[in-house]
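Now produce a polypeptide, keeping tokens residue-aligned:
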Amino acid sequence: MRVVVPHDICLLILDIIPSNASYTTPPWTRTLCSCALVCQKWLPRVRLHLYKDIVLEKEEQYALLCRTLAEVSELAPLIETMHLDLTALANFRRDIIPFPSCIIAHLSGLRVISFTCSPNRLPDSYASWASIFGVCQSLTILRLHKVTFDSMDDMVQLIWSFPTINAVEVTRCTWRFDTGPEECPGRLRLAELKIANRYPTDILRRFGPAIRKMRIQPYPLCRDDWTALMTYVDLEELHLTLVTPFGSKPVWLADALSHVPGDRLQHLSIIHILQDYGAEMIELWTEFRLDDILSGTHFGGLRQLRLVFDASSWNCPVVAELEEAVTNAFPKCSERGIIKLERKHRTYNSSGPYSNSL
């Protein structure tokens, strides 16, 4: 007896296939391509998944996508996220423009754009080309990961090229000179800022007070001047990630918190990424007098203090030990009932904990 699977059920099955998507080319893409050859009615749904998240690293990948979008124009609006690694092009073929502005103009569904270019400096020609993506009115998130700029001004100018974005992520970017205007213009309505960089306050000085959500992960031995945080008067949510390898102390933490405008701050997360857990890590909270800082009138509106221990399974303390230590280190915050304690297990890779995303 022949059984015909309803078309709606087939579409649901196609939707499940890419559930294990990653930033490399996984087997699910080949599976979807095979499905597209089985049934013509499946092709539109397959295209939705194949073109939703685009990752380009090699010159031939840029050329292939450019040709495909030029020949089948209805594919361009399907792209929602683009991860563009310009390293290979910048190192060997600086004379090649990845694809023309007429292709970019048709990316009407693009929401997230990500650029990478390391270790050599991002060429001016590619910086100008990257800024063309600012014409995409649907774009809301800009990510700069491991991009090497000639100066801070070059990075700021690139960010200014995207007037519609409301979130910026700067991760492990570098620059030779700290020059440029002190803040981004008012036409940028940024609400979220994520920084995982060696000198985070250099970046903090460039953005206006409209930021409501911020994530910061400095290098372990950061010695920055955190007075720039005082300008973020609309801040409602702050996540601070501490990487503490080999017994190092995050001495910047208390200084950073002392400069945070607490009038509107409601949620604060302190995330410890640990390589060598010991009781001294929790004792740092007492040493830095964090309980006194967060219990003052300055942080009277704080509704939640989220403390996260992110460690490998062999050195992560048990929950009972954490609860007792937190209560001793934060007696006032514990009495207010605002503490949320979390413990996570991490498997470190060879590049170390700082390579992990915010």
Summary: The first strand starts at residue 53 and ends at 56. Residues 1-50 form one domain.
